[in-house]
Amino acid sequence: MDIIVVLNTMLVLFGILMLGYIVNKLGILDEATNKKISELIVKVTSPALVIASVCGDSVMGSKKDVIFILILGILLYCVLPIFARIVVKCFKVEEENFGIYQMLLIFANTGFIGFPILKSIYGDGAVFYASILNIPFNVLIFSYGVYLLTKGSEEKAKFDIKKLVNPGIVSAVLALIIYLLDIKVPATIADILGTVGDSTIPLSMMVIGSSLALVPLKEVFKISKIYPLALVKLIVMPIIIYVLLSLFLDNQFIIGIISVTVGLPSGSMTVMLSNQYNRNTQSASIGVFITTLFSIVTIPLIINILPI
């Protein structure tokens, strides 16, 4: 991958992010509008982007590759919790942040940052593959993720299968069916999905920028342990995953997508769930803030270091 192309992509995304930051400071966007736009992205534009990714002829690989990446995704999200627990224990994270920091390491911001970056670098096929990886991701975050947040508290939550019926899962399953059954989507519908889906990129980056504008900078520098954990998340983890996958695979497209996905900044769902279960939401927010900020540099760095 040409580093100039990657840097240009990240600069464009960063520019849109900064625009979101500025318009928040100008009072055009606020927390309420962020939530509404986020809901629009999660429920409409991002699912449209996923389905549109299989409506054209740009999906690389065979049906066997698609099933294979689903299996790899299941294995990945079996290994990541073990790795995250070891890392958090090594850093001697305090009890109140023990579960939150594990979630920050395990669950990446695939929908808001991953899809736009993967589409910009690899094309529509990468969005489809990443959406398949999101199936085990969603199962894990609403089961093990909730367990981490409620462990040791009086508020115990049971696994709710209804949480899995969400636009992200539904769009991934629909895309999988369309692809595996070779369903031809009418051109007009494909164009609508493509146009709506493409709005995910500017909308998501503006919301992230606007959200970062709401984080008090004083609090960011008080939590020192988040910085080494962020480097583990953004640099060490994707390198380890790349090396492990390279031992068994020769498909650089699949290896690249999984490695980049693992090296994405922490996902905002950790903040939302922390808030829902009355955990340390501020630590979760700062973790997402720091990893998002650092990723502007680390993502091009990782893509340049690794031959993906």
From TrEMBL:
UniProt xrefs under InterPro entries: Mem_transp_PIN-like, Na+/solute_symporter_sf
Listed GO CC annotations: plasma membrane
GO BP terms, alphabetized: transmembrane transport
Compartments in which it is found: Cell membrane
Residue spans crossing the bilayer: 6-28, 66-88, 100-122, 128-149, 161-181, 201-217, 229-248, 254-274, 286-306
Principal location class: membrane
Protein's UniProt keywords contain Transport: yes
Keyword Transmembrane (UniProt): yes
Topology within the bilayer: Multi-pass membrane protein
Assigned keywords, A-Z: Cell membrane, Membrane, Transmembrane, Transmembrane helix, Transport
Family per similarity comment: Belongs to the auxin efflux carrier (TC 2.A.69) family.
Protein name: AEC family transporter
Species in which this protein is naturally found: Romboutsia weinsteinii
